[in-house]
């Protein structure tokens, strides 16, 4: 079992990304080396513009790396795959599909029959507390409910790797806290996919993750990988403990200068 | 009711050549109905209109989809569509009568010609303006191009296509009537044209009323169809209609 627990799920080997913008090369990511283990929850934080979203899109195959390799379960990534789930910042639910049909979307693509897909999706709808809203359309739901449906859609395909790009950034502060709590519960009750979670909120990263990867900004490099040793299950009261605050202070110290310089360069 | 009262008042105080009181229109209705002419006229107009709009709908959707998904098709067709979309094509209706003769074929051709452009343009726009986030979400779940087309692009375009069809119906009805003005042996357009020549104002307005009624009924039916086919849009539709 120990061997299985330490199997590498995602491996980033010297991943670099350079964009061409107005004839100038912009270096976004610089030789990112990192491995994530099976069943691990990893959060990536960094100042805005540090390339964290680009990194996630490369892992999903929505973009390709300029150099280096991404391997999932030992296999080289060449494009998006049905073994991966992606949760976007915008909920990106299909407005013409009901909650149920949104959640079954990934399953339908895998060729699962509609009736079987519904049965498979129902537990996830229950899990995100949307029972009774199966036949509602996204525009009839609140922002928090939409994002929960979005989570259910991603979890329903039982992804081996779940990629989340600031999924709670558009929510108000209270809803966001509740969603963090909920996400951990859903994750613990489902088959415990490997999760890569991107955020610019340090407390969110520390609360959720087993390890927090701190990126430097432009070009994005790994500054430090911070192991988070709080036990699970965690609940929101953890955020009020001095140990929690100490970890946040440490991470903030790593990126403070860059957040400030990013702010200044944007004001220019 | 107020409108009808105003109509009556105006009709009795202007020349009978310009306005007809409701009772005159009513009696025209019975004269036309009993002679069997009205039934024939309505059926004739309906036939040309329905066939023309059907061709325009199917053809317009296919051409629109082709333009939105194939760059070569877009480059070839777009200059033509752009040039023709704002041209009052109805003006070349007489040429169709000359080329195709008096009868169904010429009328269907005119109806198709004026009705097809809004369908093409709306279909292509609907596909092209599909939300990039939704397309990306589909790809992220492992969709292939075909899946994205069927499961994202078509549903995104559907409300646009329905708007295009609504315009096609309006334009098509005008096309049909105008084509009947220029050359036909029956139809509501023919009836109105003949009546105008003999200063039978009552029958002219009978035709106008029938066309107006058809327009209202079809628009209502289209709204209903839209709410059924695209229920997620009913919210928007109600919001715009309330203002």
Q: Can you give keywords for this protein?
A:
heterodimer, A: Rossmann fold, 2 domains, four-stranded antiparallel beta sheet, globular, B: 243 residues, MetI-like fold, 11 helices, elongated
Number of domains of chain A: 2
CATH class of chain B reads Mainly Alpha
Q: Work out the radius of gyration of chain B.
A: 22 Å
N/C terminus separation of chain B: 23 Å
Strand % of chain A is: 15-25%
Can you characterise this structure?
The complex is a heterodimer of chains A (268) and B (243). Chain A has 268 residues and is of the alpha/beta class. Chain A has two domains: 190 residues, Rossmann fold (3-Layer(aba) Sandwich), CATH 3.40.50.300; 68 residues, no CATH class. Helices cover 38% and strands 25% of the residues of chain A. Chain A has nine helices and ten strands. Chain A has a six-stranded mixed β-sheet, sandwiched between helices. A four-stranded antiparallel β-sheet of chain A has the order 2-1-4-5, covered by helices on one side. In chain A, helix 5 crosses helix 6, helix 6 runs parallel beside helix 7 and helix 8 runs antiparallel to helix 9. The model of chain A has no long low-confidence stretch (mean pLDDT 85). By secondary structure, chain B is mostly helical. Chain B has a single domain, classed as MetI-like fold. In chain B, 83% of the residues lie in helices and 0% in strands. Chain B is elongated and about 70 Å long. The two termini of chain B are 23 Å apart. The chains are: A alpha/beta (268), B mainly alpha (243). At the A-B interface, strand 6 and helix 4 of A face helix 7 and helix 8 of B.
Q: What topology emerges from the helices and strands here?
A:
The complex is a heterodimer of chains A (268) and B (243).
Chain A: H1 2-5, E1 8-21, E2 24-37, E3 41-45, H2 52-60, E4 67-72, E5 75-76, E6 84-87, H3 99-103, H4 105-109, H5 114-127, H6 143-156, E7 161-165, H7 173-189, E8 194-198, H8 202-208, E9 211-215, E10 222-227, H9 242-267
Parallel strand pairs in A: 3-8, 3-9, 6-7, 7-8
Antiparallel strand pairs in A: 1-2, 1-4, 4-5, 9-10
Helix pairs in contact in A: 5-6, 6-7, 8-9
Chain B: H1 2-13, H2 22-35, H3 37-69, H4 71-85, H5 93-100, H6 104-128, H7 132-140, H8 145-182, H9 188-197, H10 201-229, H11 234-242
Helix pairs in contact in B: 2-10, 3-4, 3-6, 3-8, 3-9, 5-6, 6-8, 7-8, 8-9, 8-10, 9-10
């Amino acid at each position: 079992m120990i061997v299985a627990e330490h199997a590498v799920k995602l491996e980033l080997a010297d991943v670099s990304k350079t964009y061409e913008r107005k004839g100038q090369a912009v270096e976004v990511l610089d030789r990112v080396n990192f491995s994530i283990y099976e069943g691990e929850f990893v959060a990536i934080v960094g100042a805005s513009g540090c390339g964290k979203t680009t990194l996630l899109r490369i892992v999903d195959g929505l973009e390709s790396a300029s150099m280096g390799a991404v391997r999932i379960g030992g296999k080289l990534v060449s494009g998006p795959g049905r073994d991966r789930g992606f949760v976007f910042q915008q909920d990106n639910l299909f407005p013409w599909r009901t909650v149920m049909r949104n959640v079954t979307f990934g399953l339908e693509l895998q060729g699962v029959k509609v009736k079987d897909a519904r049965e498979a999706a129902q537990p996830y709808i229950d899990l995100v507390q949307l029972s009774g809203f199966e036949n509602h359309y996204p525009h009839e739901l609140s922002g928090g409910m939409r994002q929960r449906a979005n989570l259910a859609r991603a979890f329903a395909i039982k992804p081996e790797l779940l990629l989340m790009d600031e999924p709670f950034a558009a929510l108000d502060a209270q809803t966001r806290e509740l969603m963090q709590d909920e996400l951990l519960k859903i994750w613990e009750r489902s088959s415990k996919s490997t999760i890569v979670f991107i955020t610019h909120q340090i407390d969110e990263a520390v609360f959720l993750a087993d390890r927090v990867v701190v990126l430097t900004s432009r070009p994005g490099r790994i500054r430090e990988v911070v192991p988070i040793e709080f036990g699970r299950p965690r609940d929101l009261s953890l955020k009020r403990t001095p140990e929690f605050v100490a970890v946040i202070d440490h991470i903030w110290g790593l990126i403070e200068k860059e957040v400030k310089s990013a702010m200044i360069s944007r004001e220019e | 009711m107020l409108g009808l009262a105003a109509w009556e008042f105006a009709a009795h105080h202007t020349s009978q050549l310009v306005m007809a009181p409701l009772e005159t229109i009513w009696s025209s209705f019975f004269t036309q109905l009993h002679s069997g002419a009205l039934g024939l006229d309505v059926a004739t107009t309906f036939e040309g209109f329905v066939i023309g709009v059907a061709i325009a709908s199917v053809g317009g959707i296919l051409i629109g989809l082709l333009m939105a998904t194939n760059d070569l098709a877009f480059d070839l067709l777009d200059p033509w569509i752009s040039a023709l979309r704002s041209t009052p094509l109805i003006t070349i209706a007489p040429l169709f009568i000359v080329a195709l003769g008096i009868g169904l074929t010429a009328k269907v051709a005119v109806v198709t010609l004026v009705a097809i452009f809004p369908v093409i343009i709306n279909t292509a726009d609907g596909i092209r303006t599909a939300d990039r986030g939704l397309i990306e979400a589909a790809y992220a779940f492992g969709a292939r191009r075909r899946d994205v087309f069927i499961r994202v692009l078509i549903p995104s375009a559907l409300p646009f296509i329905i708007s295009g069809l609504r315009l096609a119906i309006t334009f098509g009805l005008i096309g049909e009537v105008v084509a009947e003005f220029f050359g036909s042996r029956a139809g509501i357009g023919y009836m109105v044209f003949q009546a105008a020549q003999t200063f039978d104002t009552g029958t002219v307005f009978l035709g106008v009323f029938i066309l107006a009624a058809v327009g209202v009924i079809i628009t209502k039916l289209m709204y209903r169809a839209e709410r059924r086919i695209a229920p997620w849009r009913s919210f928007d539709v109600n919001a715009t209609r309330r203002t």
